[in-house]
Each structure stands twice: as C-alpha cells, then as structure tokens.
Write a structure and sequence with these properties.
Elements: H1 8-24, E1 29-31, E2 34-37, H2 44-50, H3 58-66, E3 82-84, H4 101-116, E4 120-121, E5 140-142, H5 145-153, H6 164-173, E6 175-177, E7 191-195, H7 202-216, E8 221-225, H8 232-245, E9 252-253, H9 263-267, E10 274-278, H10 280-290, E11 301-309, H11 311-321, E12 331-336, H12 338-346, H13 349-355, E13 359-362, H14 366-369, E14 378-381, H15 384-394, E15 397-400, H16 403-412
Helix pairs in contact: 1-6, 5-8, 7-8, 7-10, 8-15, 11-13, 11-16
The structure holds FE3-S4 cluster.
Length: 420
C-alpha cells in the first residue's frame, strides 16, 4: 500500500499510519476489522480554510485534513467495517438545536459522501448500542473516549483512543499500529480500588467512575468490593465518567469484566502501584464536587442521554413522564442514537416524552453541538460526564442527580436532588 500499488488514497493513508506508528515506537501493525471515526466531517472552518463548498469538499477534506496530504486524492470505498460517530447536528431536530440550514446541509453532504464509500452512518457515541458490537479480542480503531473504554473493558475488544486522522486512515487500509491496548501486557491493572459502600444505581456508578478517573488519571483501575453486577447502562456511565475526570481507557471489575476473573488476573500477577479505598466520605465528596457548579435551584433545562440513551433509559424517562406536563419554565432534551430512537418510537416512549413537552434528539448532544435552549442559566443532568463538560462549555450552572431527580426538575422547574 505504501508503494501506491493499491491507489493514491491508500498510499497516503498508509504513509500517515507509518509516521504515526513510528512516533509511537510500534514495530508492526495489527489488522483492524472495526473502525469508528468521523471521516471528512465538514465544519465551516474547514470549508473556509480549504475554499470548498459542501458539494465538492469530501476528497479535499479527507486528503488534506484527515490524511495530512498535500495532494488531493480521490477517496475510494472503505476497506473494513467502518462507522461514523456523532456529529454536531440532528437531521430532524436541527431547528430545536438552534442550527441553521447551512449547518444541516454540510452535515448531510458529508454523511452521504461517507455512506457512498461504505461507511455505516450510526451517528452516535454509543455504536455498541446501535449494532456495532466488536467481539472479544477484536482489534478496533475507535474514537470517542466513552466508547473506547466500553470497547476495551466490557466487550474485551482492543482499541486505543484514536483520532480523526488515524481512523480515517484505518478505514482505507484496515491497519492500525500494534501499540497500547492492542497488546496483552498493556491491559493489566495498575491501581486497586476497594469499594466499601454499596454501588448500585446509575448515579452511584457515575460517581464511582468520576472518583476513579480523578484518582488514576490515565492508568488502569481494577475494582473490588461492593459492586454487584452492573448492567450495560451502569457500565456506560461509569466508563464515561472515568474517561472525563481522568483519561481511563480500560477498567477491570473483578468477577464482572472479561479480563478480570480474579484480582490476580486483572493485575497480571503484579502488585498494584496504589491501593485506593472508596467509602462514604469519598462518595459524598464526589457528589459535592459534581454539584459544586450550581447555586440557583430554579432549573430551566434538563438534558439526558450522555452517553446516548439506551432503550431502557428512554423507557424509564417515559414512565416518569407518563400523563404529566413539563413545567412551563423548563425544557427537556433527551439524546440518543437514530437506531434507538426508531425502537423507542415503535415502543411508544418517544410519543409519551413528546406529549409531556420533551424532545428526543439524535446524532449529537449539548456539549458537542454547543447547544442549549435560549436563555438557559441552570441545567439538571444525570451524567457525570456531561456535568464535567457542559457548565464549562456553555457557561451555565449544572445540578447532577438521578434520572428521577432530573425529571422531577423538568416537571416542577426546581431542583430537589439529594445526596445518596
Ligand atoms: Fe455522547 Fe455527547 Fe456524552 S457525544 S458521551 S452524549 S458528551
């Protein structure tokens, strides 16, 4: 490929991957069969910089920006299973998000050009809920920190947190450097967390993840103690939180996750660098920290679905809203993937949320789209990850609590959440 025998675009992609692999100190590539990225995603800045329109931008942006090539090459079909992750616009709810028609057109044009080259248009940060579920041991090349930590930890597949450039190159070559989480020795735990309080609800798991990320940074935690058997949604919130307060890309839960049948296995028969207890005091401190960015108990916006909501979460939200109306002073946006929205519509959940005055949106979220309802001062959230980012991005106050706390705020316009 590097010789150009498989075409110019694959040559450019391989050139980028060779440079990337050399910078990492990798000695070889692995074959990847599952790539998740944002190939040639258009933005006004990129269109302006390269002096192109949405109609003729794909090859230019893919070549020059994604593949770091001076030459514009014709981008062929992808070589391996590839999907497009979240973007900044919901094709149906773009007006709700305050986006203009130009933004919609840009998003649609880059999407259809990707689809024409074989990319699956999932448009979500939870590809594993939308039909892309790699198998244990499969080498992937994924972007999106919350998806990466789920891929490594829960599914036992293997990926580093890739970037737009490396994923776009991997889509054309089916290769990624053999480095980091692709290698057995990199996947063992370094820090032992002992949980001394029951961790059960989604809120509990979000707080535990937030605590651990802040403690271990980019290292790999193994968790023992009172953790029960978390479901998919708890894993999703735990990993996303740990990847936002820190840079956790993989965790082990002893007796739960696939590479941690025992503590010894998770640690690779080594001693942990650090032993960290998580008890009542740590839990309370984490709750207080997550709620440290709010003062005003009047809530004008509730945002749910970070990472994008699973069907069970939409069912819970619909159940809490059934037959009720939102406060006139409060808006409710629930984010999910297109695939899950179709299921939720068929199940009647979207109709119930709409009847109460809420909106179900796809493809993006408030942080990525930098969008909240006009005039928002105070938001309520059930995601530690979104609580970490949204107040800083939008300059608003944020309360953190359970999904029920948030729906209660949407119905009353007031925050009444309490520490667990
Ligand atoms: Fe997804 Fe946005 Fe959260 S992209 S993980 S909903 S910050």
């Amino acid at each position: 490929m590097l010789d150009g025998r498989e075409g110019k675009a694959r040559q450019k992609a391989m050139d980028l991957l060779v440079r990337y692999g050399e910078a990492l100190g990798a000695e070889r590539f692995v074959d990847t069969t599952n790539v998740a990225g944002v190939p040639a995603y258009y933005s006004p800045v990129l269109l302006d910089y390269y002096k192109v329109t949405p109609d003729d931008a794909y090859d230019v942006i893919y070549s020059r920006f994604d593949l770091d090539s001076d030459e514009v090459v014709e981008v062929p079909r992808v070589m391996v299973n590839s999907c497009a992750l979240q973007g900044g616009v919901d094709a149906e709810g773009w007006k709700t998000l305050g986006k203009n028609y130009d933004a919609l057109r840009m998003s649609e044009q880059s999407e259809s050009a990707s689809a024409a080259r074989g990319v699956r248009i999932l448009k979500t940060c939870t590809p594993y809920l939308a039909g892309n579920v790699p198998k244990q041991g499969e080498h992937c090349a994924w972007m999106e920190s919350s998806a990466v930590v789920y891929c490594n930890s829960v599914l036992g597949a293997r990926t580093n947190t890739e970037g737009r450039e490396s994923t776009s190159a991997a889509m054309l070559t089916g290769k990624i450097p053999d480095y980091g989480f692709h290698r057995d020795d990199f996947r063992v735990a370094t820090h032992h967390i002992q949980v001394e309080v029951p961790v059960e609800s989604m809120l509990d798991w979000g707080m535990l993840g937030y605590f651990i990320g802040a403690e271990v940074g980019e290292r790999i935690p193994v968790v023992t103690g009172r953790i029960g058997r978390p479901d998919l949604i708890r894993h999703k919130h735990f990993g996303a939180a740990a990847a936002s307060s820190g840079g956790v890309e993989m965790y082990h839960l002893v007796g739960v996750t696939p590479e941690a049948e025992t503590l010894e296995q998770a640690l690779g028969a080594r001693l942990p660098l650090e032993f960290i207890p998580y008890g009542k005091a740590e839990q309370r401190r984490t709750y207080e920290e997550l709620n440290s960015k709010a003062r005003d108990t009047n809530v004008d916006f509730v945002m749910l679905g970070c990472p994008h909501a699973a069907l069970e979460q939409l069912r819970e939200i619909a159940g809490l809203l059934d037959g009720k109306r939102l406060s006139e002073n409060c808006k409710l946006w629930v984010f999910t993937s297109r695939a899950i929205k179709v299921e939720a519509e068929a199940s009647g959940y979207v109709g119930v949320i709409r009847a109460a005055g809420g909106v179900v949106l796809t493809d993006t979220c408030s942080s990525i789209a930098q969008a909240v309802p006009p005039g928002t001062k105070v938001v309520a959230l059930d995601s530690a990850k979104q609580t970490h980012y949204l107040p800083a991005i939008m300059g608003i106050q944020a309360w953190f609590g359970t999904t029920a706390d948030c729906i209660n705020a949407a119905l009353t316009g007031r925050w009444n959440g309490r520490a667990p």
